[in-house]
Amino acid sequence: MGLADDLRKPPSRPNSCWAARLRSELVGEELEAFEEAVKLVVANKGDNYRPSKGGATQAWLARVLTDNGHPIGYRGVSTHFKGQCACGII
């Protein structure tokens, strides 16, 4: 197929961000904990990685999710908290 053919066939599933995907995969206590963690990062003003400041940072969230089988980089987390991702939900 050429460019014209590819451009005429958008993906059947719209792009979604990691947070929207994770919200659809998690259940019960894990989903509740994820939502609480997101609120903590937002309360911390979505602060960038600042080890001296501590608290719930975007880097912390990325690290915890990756360590627990949900690989996501800091850049993906940052894009979400800036509201620049496909889901439009923080």
What would you say this structure looks like, in words?
The structure is a single chain. The protein is mostly helical and 90 residues long. It has one domain. 52% of the residues lie in helices and 0% in strands. It has five helices and no strands. It is elongated. The termini are far apart. The model has no long low-confidence stretch (mean pLDDT 82).
Short descriptors:
90 residues, mainly alpha, 0% strand
Task: Offer a quick outline of the entry.
The chain has 90 residues and is mostly helical. It is built from five helices and no strands.
Radius of gyration: 16 Å
Total helices: the number is: 5
**Largest sheet features:** none
Poorly predicted spans: none
Helix/strand order: HHHHH
Number of strands: 0
Mean pLDDT: 82
Task: Look at the helices and sheets and give the structural class.
Answer: mainly alpha
The gross shape turns out to be elongated
> Which range best describes the helical content: under 10%, 10-25%, 25-40%, 40-55%, 55-70% or over 70%?
40-55%
Number of domains: 1
Strand content: under 5%
